[in-house]
Every structure is written in C-alpha cells, then in structure tokens.
C-alpha cells in the first residue's frame, strides 16, 4: 500500500519538465523495471540549487520519488544535496513498499548524477 504522501506526489507531481539551460543533468535507469529518470539542475554561483525539474518514465513510486527529491533539494547547496540518500527520500514520502524501494534509489542516484555533471562541467 502507498502512503497518502506518495499518492499526492504521484497524482500531483512537483517540478515536472526540463530546464533548457540546466547546468547539471543526471539520468539513471533500471533495466529490471524499466524506470528511467532524468533530473535537471540550475545552480547559482554560490553552488545553491535555484531550480530543479525532472522527467520520469516509470511507475507511480518512481514519479513520486522524483517529485519528492526535487522538493528536497530546491534551495539547498550542492553539499547539502549530496547528503540526500534513498532512505531520506523514502522517509520523506512516509515510506515505500519494500518492492518499490529501488525507486528511491533511482531518484537519489539521478540527483547524484546531475550534481556530478554540474561539477564536471564547472571543472571543480
């Protein structure tokens, strides 16, 4: 069973879309379930995430975790965002069924990949 918060983020996902001039993009996928997530970051000169968007192809839990992770990182520094774990994403949603925990892994992993992409592009 999904929590009310998971259902809310699935039926009313936040921050859906792309950022045309994103300075960090991360994409991950899971061949086992077919979920694909892409996260776009806009980071300012102080390494603060000023905007974040996502596009996810996947189940309700994948969409909900993508939505939640974008809510969790907006306004945070890159270092703060790097601390966000899959467990933190799942907890913020009030929990996920064990069979859907891999979705929170994908959301956290896509965020990490977007941050790595930003750091690589900035030569840091």
Fold and architecture overview:
With 124 residues, the chain is of the alpha+beta class. It has a single domain (4-123), classed as Sufe protein. Chain: A, CATH 3.90.1010. 45% of the residues lie in helices and 20% in strands. It contains 5 helices and 3 strands; from the N terminus they run αβββαααα. It has a 3-stranded antiparallel sheet. A hairpin with a 4-residue loop joins strand 1 (24-30) and strand 2 (35-43). The protein is globular. This is NifU-like protein. InterPro entries: NIF_FeS_clus_asmbl_NifU-like, NIF_FeS_clus_asmbl_NifU_N. One of its GO terms (molecular function) is iron ion binding. Pfam families: NifU_N. Residues 1-122 form the NIF system FeS cluster assembly NifU N-terminal domain.
Can you give me a brief rundown of this structure?
InterPro entries: NIF_FeS_clus_asmbl_NifU-like (IPR017787), NIF_FeS_clus_asmbl_NifU_N (IPR002871). The protein is α+β, with helices and mostly antiparallel strands and 124 residues long.
How are the SSEs placed, and which strands pair?
Blueprint: H1 4-11, E1 24-30, E2 35-43, E3 49-57, H2 60-73, H3 78-82, H4 86-92, H5 101-122
Antiparallel strand pairs: 1-2, 2-3
Helix pairs in contact: 1-2, 2-5, 4-5
Protein name: NifU-like protein
Domain NIF system FeS cluster assembly NifU N-terminal: 1-122
GO molecular function: iron ion binding; iron-sulfur cluster binding
